[in-house]
Amino acid sequence: MSRLALQPTNNLLRPSSTALHLGVSGIMTRPVALAVGGTISALVAGKAILDRPSRPYNPDSVATEYDAWTEDGILEYYWGEHIHLGYYSEKEMERGYKKTNFIEAKYKFIDEMMSFGSIPSEQVGGLSVLDVGCGVGGTSRYIARAIGKESKVTGITLSPNQVKRAQELAVEQETPNAHFQVMDALKMDFPDNSFDVVWACESGEHMPDKEKYISEMMRVLKPGGKFVMATWCQRDDREVPFSKKDLKFLYEEWTHPYFISIEKYAELIEGTGMMESVGTADWVRETIASWRHSIWVGVYDPRGFIFKPRQYLKCVRDGYCLERMHRAFDRGLMQYGMFHATKKLE
C-alpha cells in the first residue's frame, strides 16, 4: 500500500485557509460595498438636485428673493452690508485670499470703484448721487458719509425688506443724508437730469431689458455728471460662440434673466448718444476670489445658519452656486465688467 493511502483523512474535512479567507472577506466586503454604493448613489442624486435650478427669473422673482434673503439675515451675517464682490490686490492673491478680511475686501471694492469712476471721496457740498440697486444700502451710506452731510445719496431697490433694513441702518449709523425707496430701475420716477452721479453695482444682472436699464440711468444723470457701473457679464460670443446651456444654471438659480458682454454694454452706453469718455475694464482677477471666499467664511463660522435648519438646503444651494460662479469666471465664460462715462454738456 502506498504511503499516500496511509495518510490521515481528517484534513480533508477541514476548511482550507484560502476558503476561510474568502468567506470572511466576502462577508465583510458586502456591507462595505453596499455602504459605498449607497453613498455614491446619494451623492449622484444630491448633485442632480443641486444641478436643477430652483429660482428662475420672473417679473416678481427679484423682489421676492431679496426680501427672503434680507428677512432670514444669513446674507447680511456673512456679507455684511454689501451684497457685492470684494476687491483683492495682486499681493493679497499671492499670499492667499483667505488671509484677507472678507468684509474689508468689499469696502476696498467701493474705494476702487469710486476711483475708477472719478467719484469724489471727500466732503463736497450739494452733490446728488443715485445708487441703482442699492441692496440694504451699505454702499449708499458709505458714499453718503464720504461726501458729507451737505450732499445726498438716494438708493433704489425692488425689495421692500431691503428698503426697511437700509433705513434702519441709516438711523443706527447716523447717516441722515442717505435715503431709500422702492423703485423699478427700468421705470424711474425721477425727472431728467436729476443726479450728479449715477452708481450701479451688480444690479444689471437682474435687468430683463439691458437697453432700458442703461437709457434710464443716462436720462436721470445731469449733463457733466459721472456714471460708474459694475456688473457680471458673459464673454462676448460674437466671434467665438458658446452654448448658453453653460450659463443656464447661473441664470435660473439666482433669478437672472440673461447676461450680456462688456462690449455690448459699452455699445448700449454709446448708443444713447448722451455719453462721452466711455471706459471699460474687466476686473475678474481682482474679484474672482470672492466666490470661494464666500464659501469659506461659512465653513469657518457656521453660526450664521446653523440655528436655522429650514434654510439648510437653501444655504447648500447658494454655496453650490457660488462654486459654479467661480468656475464660470475662471473658465472665461464670465467677465466682471466695469464701466465709467461722463454725460455730455448740453
UniProtKB/TrEMBL annotation:
Belongs to the class I-like SAM-binding methyltransferase superfamily. gTMT family. The keyword S-adenosyl-L-methionine applies. Transmembrane segments: none annotated. SUPFAM superfamilies: S-adenosyl-L-methionine-dependent methyltransferases (SSF53335). Residues 220-229 are annotated as: SAM motif III. It holds the Pfam family Methyltransf_11. Residues 130-229 form the Methyltransferase type domain. Keywords: Methyltransferase, S-adenosyl-L-methionine, Transferase. Coiled coil: none annotated. It comes from Triparma laevis f. longispina. InterPro entries: Erg6_SMT_methyltransf, Methyltransf_11, PiNMT-like, SAM-dependent_MTases_sf. The keyword Coiled coil does not apply. Residues 193-201 are annotated as: SAM motif II. It comes from the Eukaryota. GO terms for biological process: methylation. This is Methyltransferase type 11 domain-containing protein. One of its GO terms (molecular function) is S-adenosylmethionine-dependent methyltransferase activity. Residues 129-138 are annotated as: SAM motif I.
